[in-house]
Amino acid sequence: MSAPLTSLDRPNSYIGRSVPRPNAKRLLAGRGRYVSDLKLPRMLYAAFLRSPHAHAKIVSINIDEARAIEGVHLVATGADLAKICTPWVGTLDHFKGMTSAPQMPLPLDRVVWAGQAVVAVVAESRAIAEDALELIEIDYEDLPVVADLDSARQVGGALVNPGSANNICFRSQLDNGTVDDAFAHAAHVVEEEFSFGRHTAVTLEPRALVADYDPAAGMLTVHHGTQTPYQFQDLYSRHYGIPEARVRVIATDIGGSFGMKLHVYHEDMAVVGLSILLGRPVKYVADRIESFVSDIHARDHRVRARMALDAKGGILAVDVVDLTAIGAFSTFPRTSVVEGNQVIRLIGAPYRFKNYRATLEVIFQNKVQTSQYRAVGHPIACAVTERLVDIAASKIGLDPFAIRAQNVIPDDAYPEISPTGYRFEALSHQTCLKRLHEMMDYDALRAEQADLRKRGVYRGIGIATFVEITNPSPAFYGVGGARISSQDGAIVSLTPSGEVRCLISVTEQGQGTEAIISQIVADQLGLALEHVKVVTGDTEVTPHGGATWACRGAGIGGETALQATRALKRNILEVAALILQAQPSALDIIDGEVVDAVTRKPRLPISEIARIAYFRSDTLPSGTQAQLTVSHHFAPQGYPFAFTNGIQGCALEVDVETGLIKLLKHFIVEDCGRVINPMLVDEQLRGGIVQGLGAALFEECRYSETGQLMNGSLADYLVPMPMEMPDIVIGHVETPTADTELGAKGVGEAGTAAASACVLNAVNDALAPFDATINSVPITPAKVLKALKRF
Amino acid sequence: MKARAFSYFRAATIDQALDAHARAGDDARFIAGGQSLVPALSLRLQAPRLLIDITHIDDLRGVRREGGHLRIGALTRHCEMLSELLIAEFAPLLHAVAPFVAHPAIRNRGTFGGSIALADPASEFPAMTLALDAEIEIAGPSGRRRVRADDFFIDLFETALQPGELIIAVYVPLFKADQRFAFDELARRRGDYALVGCGMLATFAGDRVDDIRISFFSVGNTPTRVKGAEAILIGSRLDAGRIATAQGALEGDLAPPDSDEVPPAMRLHLARVLLGRLLGRLGEGA
Questions:
Q1: Does A287 touch chain B (CB under 8 A)?
Q2: Which domain holds residue A662?
Q3: Chain B contact for A658, CB < 8 A?
Q4: What was the ipTM of the complex prediction?
Q5: What structural domains does chain B harbor?
Q6: Inter-chain Cβ pairs, chain A and chain B, closer than 8 A
Q7: pLDDT 10s digits, A520-557
């Protein structure tokens, strides 16, 4: 018996089909072209001397001995680079009142975090450069260190920026409805303080770039492991005064980015300057030890939150104060306040209530800067909301599924506006909740839990609903004055052999961007997938666009490819119609053949159309100019963001004697709209969940009281490893956005958004018999044992 | 990070290695598996002028019986602890411990002698030499000698090895029919340095403990035998009360260091939990 035919059984119907990534085999075969592996003729290597102090005045720098070493070509200080590079400031206009000090590639007179690069050495090898670093003498004078949130907020305490009134970077408030009134009349109020540790991205390939300035051509080429080549083309051009058309940024294969590789790093900007000063290619690859003290960190929030509910468990109001400590600067060009901003705007997002108040305070401290990292703000908003919901459920005597089913915005209520002001087009919380309940076999899990508890085995079950921001419009950065595009561009061409090449501005970091763009192009044109070639990541070749961040690759990049391909198809059919003496509307393309639109009878291969158009245009009617290359741009309109939603669940076991937690199984039901490649969507969800589980149990940048990172190596900073990861069961609900033809929304951050909240709820569920609670991630054995009063 | 430049010499015999070291003085290091030394070189925590590669010295290889002992050559790789039948039969504790030592890539290169010589207080194998009452054979400028594990570990990364001395082999008493062993460690991730770990070897007379050696790691500056707890167990049955008394004795046996992540009281608690679990297993026949 065969299954009924579906749309996937049509020829070339690649949208919705799991096809392998075209680049996977190449990367597996070791043929990746990573910047880390790149060697150019006459290339030199940079290394940086870093500050051992979290806050100190630079009294003097002696570079004489370092400069004298054979093989050293340049030793440069902040003053040298300040002559050719203009400073930058990490603020955006739409964050009213925000401040941040100007930044330079290397500091002039003061270091503001331990690990900050101070002096650059360029030499014939990295080893020689490091030899020279050992000979540089810097005389520092210690300044008072602002080492954490509390000392930063202390009135009259140490200041990150001497001369400023306080350590505040940005404050924001939301106040909708009648919060005080709702709390005053609530049947139940639950309140908790939460803390979220600092963590960092730990990409497989660290940050890497080769800057190659050619003085003869006045041309700067930067091979850069980044998500956003166009943004850096613009920045290198502006800050070094080179016309944009003479700056080329090439970002080919990249070993992971997770948001970490779209910020301006001081060393990276310095390397461009070093190449300009030397007129030679200069390479810099951050080693792992450097990555820990110079890559952006994320999270580091303390949130006090309370929720008011009616007698039956209906949510009435939420009141939140979020304090977050960033670095000594706000990151450029996307700032360090977006995370906090998203925390206060995403809290409560799945639920229908009207009264919401939030205060955000973003604070400077002497640590490396924080900024956008996978699922910006989401895990914090989700953990705060979902923990409060669970605490309330337990207080009122409701099951976690029941209280959520009662409070989520109903699937038929859209469009709807969140209590924080976000506009939702269509979400599917009710469907997702129901599906998760079935997938987890929830009632059986609960029965097993009760049974095991009698035998001294403490299992926990946790769930967490979430809303994710994807497909951002210019409302995200553009309105704040950032030259960060929210549109994308594609150039699609029919080659003389009848294949299609697509140059597109969205980029590939291993998530399969090129695969889904190929699928969309092949599907929309009517061509076998292997006849589509997608090219990304070179500002000299691919059109300008936002590239890849905030889950915009599929939704915006995909729609760009779809519209561009439809335009190319129209053009091909116009030429075909002339050749076949038919109306274009009477023709279609299937599997690379122009066919009769009604009978599907093949009329002419598109390779033949290409041959005639390119080589025998003399045989076409006079006046015909075949347009077999189409360039097309697409900017999102309609809703400012395409929100997605889903729910996660997990089962785990807490060893109440040791505090160790074993993850047993993880579940997710997710709605990212149109699924283009189910396999890649599942990979995104699994990878994202693993990152969220890392945050839940393992990852934290721990600092001393003097601002020194205590665990800056992979021996001490614990990333999630396969032995500790559970099986992950995935379910899908599809609610396409009507804002685009494609209907796709993003999926890259959904896994990370709720995984830690889910684990936090499950651990508290496991500890329920002990009257012990934990409201802090990562959940370490020390925190569990402390909560259980075991030591 | 790149190591500072150094010279490299591959020794073919023990004497060649010792000679090379004697000539270079303090500026030389022996290298075998390199699993600790190479990172230290790359981080420039160590910058010797000469590395003496001992991995081609045949006399440092091999596992064989010698009288009442198993002689385990210093170059025996961690992975060989899993594959070598003589170890599985006559030193089953080491066989059982090996899967806990780091990850496969490290086990493929790291050597038994190297691990003992480094004496990382968080490593499994140095602690196990204490539980096994092993002897360590050392060659140096002034000849050869054997040092009992009990006398070998002195302080943090400090051992009875003198400058220029080399571990040749480790002698482990053959496992006997009336003996039982147990091992486990508590770690946040498999393969990490443990929060606390423990191995033990006991000789039974019927259901009574005739002799027991219990060794902890990740509890202080050196791998540590807990002689107070041992004394409580010798001559007794492993019943719940006796186990609890032994757990109580750990407070006197161990003085865990302060660390930012694991306070001393927590480590002591974990050591007690682990000791209780392992003695329970030992009582059940391990």
A1: yes
A2: 297-474+638-787
A3: yes
A4: 0.96
A5: 7-53 (3.30.43.10), 58-173 (3.30.465.10), 181-283 (3.30.390.50)
A6: 63
A7: 999 999 999 999 999 999 999 999 999 999 999 999 99
